[in-house]
Amino acid sequence: MMTSERELWVCALAVEKQHGEQAGVWIAERIGALALAGDGEGVARWKAIAEKLSLLWTGERPLSM
C-alpha cells in the first residue's frame, strides 16, 4: 500500500506533538517492534515518517540504513 507524502507529514507532525523531543526515540522503538513482528510494510512506513521528522527538525535527510 502506497502512503501519500501528505499522510507521512501529518503522522510526523502528530508524533512530534505527542512525544516532543522524544519523538525520534518513540519512532525508533515502533520500527523495532514492527521489525520483530515481521511487518516489513510497517517498518517502511515508519522509516518514511522518521525521515519526515528528521527533515522537520534539521532540514536534512537522515543517512540511509
Structural class: mainly alpha
Helical stretch count? Answer: 3
Net shape: globular
User: What Rg do the Cα atoms give?
Assistant: 11 Å
The separation of the N and C termini measures 22 Å
Helix content, binned percent: over 70%
Based on the structure, what is the oligomeric state of the protein chains?
Answer: single chain
Give the percentage of residues in beta strands.
under 5%
Q: Could you name the ranges where pLDDT drops below 50 across 5 or more consecutive residues? A: none
Counted up, domains total 1
Q: Could you list some keywords that capture this structure?
A:
65 residues; mainly alpha; 74% helix; DUF6961
Question: How is this structure best summarized?
Answer:
InterPro entries: DUF6961 (IPR054234). Pfam families: DUF6961 (PF22284). The radius of gyration is 11 Å and the shape is globular.
